[in-house]
Specification:
The complex is a heterodimer of chains A (113) and B (112). Chain A has no helices and eleven strands. Chain A has 113 residues and is mostly beta strands. Chain A is globular, with a radius of gyration of 13 Å. The N and C termini of chain A lie far apart (35 Å). In chain B, strand 7 and strand 8 form a beta hairpin. In chain B, 37% of the residues are buried. Classes of the chains: A mainly beta (113), B mainly beta (112). At the A-B interface, strand 5 and strand 10 of A face strand 5 and strand 6 of B.
């Protein structure tokens, strides 16, 4: 089955620790996205990538980093610089970036210990 | 910058009653418009979208939305809701040269 997978479903972070969220797609999509969702805030764009080996900052990139070494993978690292990382993180992909439907993964919930 | 306003954060409605979820956007250029639905602890799924042509678009489960350019609106409607429609609904706007912008969402609660 084609789709987007995110792992883990739940992730716990200790103070000062970097953690990496996985996102994989087998839809052969060029574009991939990371969003952060907080209650009542909707979805806010962290980073997006339109093609392999290229990515752009979204609205709330501070404290996060990404890589796009393979078309099917777009991991997100939440660094220790992100002081309020507790949130639901969603990954999405699309064939392009204009007028195209985004397909979402099931999400990863990050909690701080 | 592009912005999307969903006027109601929560909408309670009785089963089999009609519902309208409102969405307004700010843009002076041509846009593509989307409604996504999110069930608890899941990702988002596309409900329907407007790209061009007929201003009324429909989904397979009875929702419809009408693009109104003069009022910059894309309200979502359903004539008779079911318990299974309980979810959060997000309106989103794509102006073609920037990533998709989402509204803050409307939580629809259908009461038996």
């Amino acid at each position: 089955d084609g789709g987007i997978t995110q792992s883990p479903k739940y992730l716990f972070r200790k103070e000062g620790q970097n953690v990496t969220l996985s996102c994989e797609q087998n839809l052969n999509h060029d574009a991939m996205y990371w969003y952060r969702q907080d209650p009542g805030q909707g979805l806010r764009l962290i980073y997006y990538s339109q093609i392999v080996n290229d990515f752009q900052k979204g609205d709330i990139a501070e404290g996060y980093s990404v890589s796009r070494e393979k078309k099917e993978s777009f991991p997100l690292t939440v660094t220790s610089a992100q002081k309020n990382p507790t949130a639901f993180y969603l990954c999405a992909s699309s064939t392009g970036t204009s007028g195209e439907t985004q397909y979402f993964g099931p999400g990863t919930r990050l909690l701080v210990l | 910058a592009q912005s999307v306003t969903q006027l109601d954060s929560q909408v309670p409605v009785f089963e089999e009653a009609p519902v309208e979820l409102r969405c307004n956007y700010s843009s002076s250029v041509s846009v593509y418009l989307f409604w996504y639905v999110q069930y608890p602890n899941q990702g988002l799924q596309l409900l329907l979208k407007y790209l061009s042509g007929s201003t009324l678009v429909e989904s397979i489960n009875g929702f419809e939305a009408e693009f109104n350019k003069s009022q910059t609106s894309f309200h979502l409607r359903k004539p008779s809701v079911h318990i299974s429609d309980t979810a959060e609904y997000f309106c989103a706007v794509d102006s073609g040269n920037t990533p998709l912008v989402f509204g803050k969402g409307t939580r629809l609660s259908v009461i038996a």
